[in-house]
Design a protein that fits this description.
Blueprint lengths: L1 H10 L16 H30 L15 H5 L11 H20 L6 H29 L4 H23 L7 H9 L3 H17 L1 H5 L1
InterPro entries: VKOR, VKOR_Actinobacteria, VKOR_sf
Organism: Streptomyces boetiae
Family: Belongs to the VKOR family.
Length: 213
C-alpha cells in the first residue's frame, strides 16, 4: 500500500481511489430491459418516420394506425408539435433509442461504465420522459388525438427512465436514504406501473364519451 502511495505521489495521481471514478456494469435483467425498451422505441420511431415520408409524398395518404377520430396518427404527424426541433420528432428517437440499445448490448457483453456515464444516461432518460410528458399533454388536450406508436414509445421511455433511476440509486450514483433504496428495490415495478396507469386513466377519461358510445 505504501509503495502504491509513493508511486501515485511520484506520478501526480491521487493515491486514494475516487469513488466517483468507479466503473459499474449491470445485471442481465437491466441490460435486457434497455435493449427491449430501446427496440420498442426504435420501432415506433421508425414506423412514424416512414409514415411521415408517405404523407410528404402524398397528402391524401392515411397511416395504418389512423383508426378513428381519436386514434389518428395522421393528425399527430401533421401537427406543429410533431416537429418541435425543426425536424420530425421520431428522427430524434431513432438516434436516442439506438444509443440505448447499444448501451444495453454493451452491458450484456460485460461492459462497465463510470459514474459520469450513468449520470449521462440518467439525464438522457430524464429528458426523454419529460419530453414524452409534454407530448402527452399536447396529444390529449391540444391536438386531441392519439398515436398508438407514440404510446408505445411513451411506455418504453417511462420504463427505461425508472429502471435507470433504480440502477443509479442502487449503485450510489444518485443519493438516497437507505430506506428509500430498499423500498425502490423491493417495489421496483410499482412506480413505472403507476406512471403508465395514470396516463391510461387520463386517456380513458379524456375521451370517455367516445369510448362508451
Amino acid at each position: 500500500m505504501a509503495a502504491a502511495v509513493v508511486d501515485a505521489v511520484r506520478t501526480g495521481e491521487d493515491p486514494v481511489p475516487d469513488e466517483r471514478a468507479r466503473a459499474v456494469g449491470a445485471g442481465r435483467g437491466f441490460a435486457l430491459l434497455l435493449v427491449i425498451t430501446g427496440f420498442a422505441g426504435l420501432l415506433a420511431a421508425w414506423v412514424i418516420t416512414l409514415d411521415k415520408f408517405h404523407i410528404l409524398e402524398d397528402e391524401n395518404y392515411t397511416p395504418a394506425c389512423s383508426l378513428n377520430p381519436v386514434v389518428s396518427c395522421g393528425s399527430i404527424m401533421e401537427s406543429e408539435q410533431a416537429e418541435v426541433f425543426g425536424f420530425p420528432n421520431p428522427m430524434l428517437g431513432m438516434v436516442t433509442y439506438g444509443a440505448v440499445i447499444a448501451i444495453g448490448m454493451g452491458l450484456l457483453a460485460g461492459a462497465r461504465y463510470g459514474r459520469w456515464f450513468w449520470l449521462g444516461l440518467q439525464g438522457g432518460t430524464l429528458f426523454g420522459v419529460g419530453f414524452c410528458t409534454w407530448l402527452q399533454y399536447q396529444s390529449l388536450y391540444e391536438i386531441r388525438a392519439l398515436c398508438l406508436w407514440c404510446c408505445l414509445a411513451w411506455v418504453a421511455t417511462i420504463v427505461m427512465f425508472w429502471y435507470t433511476t433504480l440502477h443509479n440509486v442502487r449503485n450510489g450514483f444518485l443519493p438516497a436514504p437507505a430506506g428509500v433504496r430498499r423500498t425502490l428495490e423491493e417495489f421496483h415495478w410499482l412506480i413505472p406501473t403507476v406512471h403508465v396507469a395514470i396516463i391510461g386513466m387520463l386517456i380513458l377519461t379524456n375521451w370517455w364519451d367516445f369510448w362508451t358510445s
